[in-house]
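[step 3/7] fold_predict: job queued, chain A
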Amino acid sequence: MDRPETLDRYLGLLGLPARRPSLDALAELTATHLMRIPFENVSKLFYRHDALRRGLPDLSRFLDGIEGYHFGGTCYANNFHFCQLLAHLGYRVTLCGADMNAPDVHIVSVVTLDGRRYLVDVGYGAPFLEPLPLDGTEDREIVWGAYRYVLRPADAGQRPRLDLYRDGVLKHGYVLNPAARRIEEFADIIAESFAERATFMNALLISRFGKDRSTMLRNLTLISSEGSAWYLREITEADQLPGIIEREFGMPRDIVRKALDGVRLTAQP
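[step 4/7] structure written:
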């Protein structure tokens, strides 16, 4: 467990007071995290050439990135540190793995409140603004523009499935593994995520979701929603990205420029 004062700093960056565990408080924490701390792989790209900074950032460096550069992280950083914060606040929370194209390449939190289990995932680049009940018997849908996320009931092995459709086509998803895990068990997977062939070494994905305004940058496509209005912009030149990312997400353009140096956006996140 990280030091309590560091976890209190984390809560301060979210701008929230400590509250007794409850479903309302958990929903507030989850929605605020998605609004203030993006899913992004710019930080991975920025640190990829630094042997001392490759891998999962410890909490202090994670918070330094948020405070100094408006970074967040991918699933390993965002979900692991959020899981630790929830435990610090008194939640009964379990870190779990999830299978995607390979076993346990995603991690999530499962929170138990009043005898019910909830999926909390602030590391999928998705608008999961509230905890998602895992005891449902019917599909639960979340729609954001052309994106449709479907949480399906658990199978006989107590493994719920989350499917992502884009423009009506199933793109990917994950199957939750309910067993409790330690972050050290994912060390090899995290190391592999920095390999030259890894998706987030060859793609760009940044997303920030709020109740009123949300923005996603997926390679050279910028999508945003504000109220009921939707905007889509195709970026014609990659050298426009640092300025766009600074304007939309607050990351300094010189940091973004260094992160993207030599990156060819060929993967589909």
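[step 5/7] annotate
The chain has one domain: 4-260.
The chain has eight helices and 13 strands.
exit 0
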